[in-house]
Fold:
Amino acid sequence: MKALIGKKAPEFHAPAVINGNQIVEDFSLEQYLGKKYVVLFFYPMDFTFVCPTELHAFQEKLGEFEKRDVAVVGCSVDSEFSHFAWLNQDKNKGGIHGVKYPIVADFSKTIAENYGVLAADYLTNEEGELVATGAPVAYRGLFLIDKEGKIRHYVINDLPLGRNVDEAIRMVDALQHFEEFGEVCPANWSKGKDAMKATNEGVSGYLSKH
Structure:
């Protein structure tokens, strides 16, 4: 997998459920270009165990993302109809009722493949048959995309490992701090803490030693 940092986020047009109750046939991240940052996260599958905890966690923090001018978008390899049914199932029954951000249907698995998070490889065997190795679902990938459509941060967890939504917010804060003040953010930095000035001389010196 080639690193996606600093590159344009792979484009896609796919069905999605928005506002928790409306299916749209042609959802794209292009609507956010020049307007909003995007946190695009992938999860393995609807109607599972860890996944609803993550989707609800993003919903609970949605106000924090929105006040930072960030659109949150979920995506899995399920169909839009599966998403819709899950959104209409109560939380206490394992559903995600109440989730309002868009959830994209990557039924062809091409979005997950283009973002490097598909947990399966497809090979042709000696009989010429196409076979899958691994689980044909998405790893728990999360991508922070800036207003120009470039990926500035991403992390990919294996299937059993749920992610930390507060860490996603911290990374948004770090990117926005850098964009506003030109300061770089050291280890364990959080909003309100001191950052560091990055001079051309300092960068050149670092590169010359490494």
Observations:
- Helices lie at 50-60, 62-66, 80-87, 110-114, 165-181, 200-209.
- The first strand starts at residue 14 and ends at 18.
